[in-house]
Design a protein that fits this description.
heterodimer, A: mainly alpha, B: alpha/beta, four-stranded antiparallel beta sheet, 10 strands, binds adenosine-5'-triphosphate, binds magnesium ion, ABC-2 type transport system permease protein (chain A), ABC_tran_2 (chain A), transmembrane (chain A), membrane (chain A), transmembrane helix (chain A)
């Protein structure tokens, strides 16, 4: 086992190590940690409020256990959701496994090492969300020391079962992905399907638990009735809740032993079945596509295009074909709008539907300013732009000896992030016009403003990346992991535009058209300035990145 | 034509990789660039191709200074890097088409050339596959095909023969001879001394960033004992330090 620990330490170090980070990046971490404190306090405050209210309502009915049930259900859902991304990325997208296989490690040791980072991120969340919630529950119920002892143990085992379930399902699917022809594409599809699956289950559970009102009365009067109802899709949540509510009784102890046994069993299954499934799936999975050679196919691809278009196409192809880039860039920038649309469509009676028509009653100026502010935030973190240069990694130097002017390469990269932003703006447009029924003029003004904003955001992200790119990666994830500089453009834009919005909001300027005109003028000015600084940075840095 | 390298220097984090290197490479010659590992060959070549900025000195091709008029100079040469870190997620054909777009090769010519080059290197049937799936030698061949596709006057090749099978190595060597015989320049680095003996008109041996020897093969033999073979000569020249 000590070998497994060593392996795990190396893997964790390779993925998270601070040693290769510059002083600036370290300062960035520190800064972000500082900014997180008020945010964290806010979350704590929020959790405490919810638990307090629920407790006060449910306790008289003897149904307070449902709070824990809901909590454990929610955590299981969050853990499965997060695990899809981390498991895929650590187990399958990272191709470093090929360098560990020839070394004298047992398969389960490699699997153990590979799960370290996904597990660490789960425990991070677990500490931020579940731990304070359990403590608050304890405080409200006036629990004794016994509760806290068990709570800590339950806290420690909660991530195990969702993680193991998710990863075993993913491993099972990946076994079949390995047979497919275009492996990179399949890997991405599996990831997408995973997310859809988990969202789908969540929706189903909500629909299922929402409907039967008449039963509710019965459930409420029965002790733990609600709990059984809420946790019926995930028994471990029931066991955990009972353990913590029936402390010191035989039932409590029984369920405690049950949950511990289940978790141990899960770990055992993970290391035994998991290692078989994993190696069947991962060996030979490293990407790329081989086609049956057809002469016409090749001939068709020979065509003359302008260099700028050719560069742009190359970038887009690389993003679409690299699983990590695809998930980090495309999925992430489209995720939010799609999520929004799905939420609205699922529940046609939601207060948001047709909300756009209410806009007419609001002051036009405020509507446009608020929408503009939201756009700035939504487009602010743009993984396509702050990975513009870093994405190339070791192949960056190819741009240097080819006779392509730096400005053209840079422009092609700007157009890529602009294009991806454009796609998400189009999705939002669909939601805005057809579901929210927003007035056409407001949409049009917003759209024009957003296009310019998106251009500025693309420049800002690219400048940050050009200023300190990460070109020496061996694994695509390094382009995004721990590169918190992605937040810098957002912070910059939020500050600049925040002030502008504030000033305009309070100014005597009235009317939607004049506010838009002023905003547009400012935006154009800002983008001209940004372009100027970008050009200077290109002159200074472009040939000196290696 | 001619390549003129004037007193160039380059250091990395205080360590000098190239010191006052001076070379001139005449037209119509195959020029071999030798030296032990870490001597500064790749560094010199990277400065010639504009990948690394030159700390001191200047390099010009056909009178065009690479630092002053980079775009013009870069149209003159084709470069095969020492590592084939090219765009792995592209297909072979997409890569070649991209290179042809950059050099504005007309459609009919590129079709013909792609077919001719990749068929002579035996990678024609792999053109529709991602470069990622290529073997080391196949990657090398696709890069070489890309360079030859736009028919540059100057070929700058950093260890072009490593990883090529005997037949492809032979093909490439023939192409190099043919190019030089048309009065153009082939400049390449290598560790294989037999290749140098077979192929080169002129050689330069560098060590620790500066030139230890330069001249044509005949001079080289004369300067040292007649019976010495190239291997002994090379070892002798580079053994100090
Ligand atoms: N990016 C870099 N950073 C720091 N030092 C470097 C870098 N690139 C090269 N060097 C150093 O410069 C010197 C020359 O390296 P170069 O790659 O030019 O050698 P080479 O002659 O091509 O060797 P080889 O025959 O192994 O290819 C070496 O000492 C090397 O360590
Ligand atoms: Mg070298």
């Amino acid at each position: 086992m000590s070998k497994a620990w060593k392996l795990m330490k190396i893997m964790v170090k390779m993925q998270l190590s601070m040693s290769s980070k510059s002083a600036m990046e370290k300062a960035g971490y520190f800064f972000i940690a500082l900014m997180m404190i008020p945010f964290g306090l806010l979350i704590l405050f929020f959790i405490q409020g919810i638990i307090g209210n629920l407790y006060a309502t449910l306790e008289p009915l003897g149904n307070e256990s449902v709070i824990l049930g809901l909590l454990f259900m929610m955590m299981a859902f969050i853990f499965s959701f997060i695990s899809i991304g981390t498991v895929l990325s650590s187990f399958y997208f990272a191709e470093d496994v090929e360098s560990f296989i020839p070394l004298p490690f047992q398969p389960y040791q490699i699997l153990f090492g590979k799960s370290a980072v996904p597990f660490l991120s789960l425990y991070g969340l677990n500490t931020v969300l579940l731990l304070p919630s359990l403590i608050f529950y304890g405080l409200h119920s006036g629990a004794g020391i016994l509760y806290y002892v068990f709570a800590i143990i339950i806290w420690a085992v909660t991530p195990i079962i969702p993680f193991v379930l998710t990863s075993i399902i993913l491993m099972f699917i990946m076994r079949f992905a390995n047979i497919s022809k275009n492996k990179d594409r399949t890997k991405v599809l599996v990831g997408l399907l995973g997310f859809v699956f988990v969202i789908g289950i969540n929706v189903l559970v909500r629909i299922d638990t929402g409907g039967e009102n008449e039963d509710l009365a019965r459930l409420i009067t029965e002790q733990n009735g609600l709990l059984e109802f809420v946790t019926k899709f995930f028994p471990p949540a029931y066991f955990s809740s009972i353990t913590l509510t029936e402390l010191g009784t035989f039932t409590g102890l029984l369920y405690f032993i049950l949950i511990i046994t289940l978790s141990a069993l899960a770990i055992f299954l993970f290391l035994t079945i998991g290692q078989k499934l994993y190696f069947k799936g991962v060996l030979g999975l490293s990407g790329g596509k081989r086609n049956n050679f057809k002469e016409e196919n090749v001939q068709k691809q020979v065509k003359q295009q302008p260099v700028l278009f050719s560069l742009w196409k190359k970038e887009i192809r690389i993003i679409l074909r690299t699983p990590t880039f695809f998930t980090q860039i495309v999925v992430q920038s489209l995720f939010f709008p799609i999520f929004l649309i799905v939420l609205i469509i699922i529940d046609p009676n939601s207060p948001l539907t047709g909300w756009g028509s209410d806009l007419n009653q609001m002051e036009g100026k405020k509507v446009i300013l608020a929408m503009f502010g939201m756009t700035v935030v939504a487009l602010g973190i743009n993984p396509a732009s702050f990975s513009s240069i870093s994405r190339d990694g070791k192949s960056w130097f190819n741009h240097l000896y080819l006779p392509i002017p730096p400005s053209k390469v840079i422009l092609s990269k700007l157009l890529v992030s602009f294009f991806l932003n454009f796609l998400s703006l189009m999705l939002i447009t669909i939601a805005a016009l057809f579901i929210l029924e927003m007035p056409l003029t407001i949409w049009l003004l917003w759209f024009v403003l957003s296009l310019v904003t998106s251009w500025i955001a693309s420049i800002a992200g690219l400048m940050i990346d050009l200023y300190s790119p990460k070109l020496t990666w061996t694994d695509e994830r390094e382009v995004f992991k721990g590169r918190f500089i992605g937040i810098v453009p957002l912070a910059l834009e939020a500050t600049i535009f925040g002030v502008i919005i504030l000033v305009l909001w309070n100014s005597g300027l009235e009317g939607i058209w004049s506010v838009t005109a002023v905003l547009l003028t400012i935006l154009v000015l800002v983008s001209v300035c940004a372009q100027y600084f970008l050009n200077r940075l290109v002159d200074r840095n472009y040939y000196k990145l290696l | 034509m001619m390549i003129e390298i004037n007193q160039i220097s380059k250091s990395f984090a205080g360590k000098q990789a190239v010191k006052n290197l001076e070379l001139s490479i005449p037209d119509g010659k195959i020029f071999g660039f030798l030296g032990p590992n870490g001597a500064g060959k790749s560094t010199t070549i990277k400065m010639m191709t504009g990948i690394l900025p030159i700390d001191e000195g200047s390099i010009s091709m056909n009178g065009v200074d690479i630092s002053k008029e980079p775009m013009k100079a870069k149209h003159l040469f084709g470069y095969v890097p020492d590592r084939s870190d090219i765009f792995l997620r592209l297909k072979g054909i997409e890569y070649l088409n991209f290179i042809a777009d950059v050099f504005e090769v007309p459609k009919e010519i590129r079709k013909e050339k792609i077919e001719y080059l990749t068929k002579s290197f035996g990678i024609y049937e792999a053109l529709d596959d991602h470069i990622q799936t290529y073997s080391h030698g196949m990657k090398q061949k696709i890069v070489v095909s890309g360079v030859l596709l736009h028919d540059p006057d100057v070929w700058i090749l950093d260890e072009p023969l490593t990883g090529l099978d005997p037949k492809s190595a032979y093909t490439l060597k023939e192409m190099m001879r043919e190019h030089a015989s048309r009065g153009k320049i082939v400049f390449f680095s290598t560790h294989v001394l037999e290749v140098v003996e077979q192929l080169c008109d002129e050689v330069a041996i560098i060590n620790n960033g500066h030139v230890q020897f330069k001249g044509n093969m005949i001079e080289m033999r004369q300067q040292f004992k007649e019976d010495d073979n190239l291997e002994r000569l090379f070892l002798e020249l580079t053994q100090n330090e």
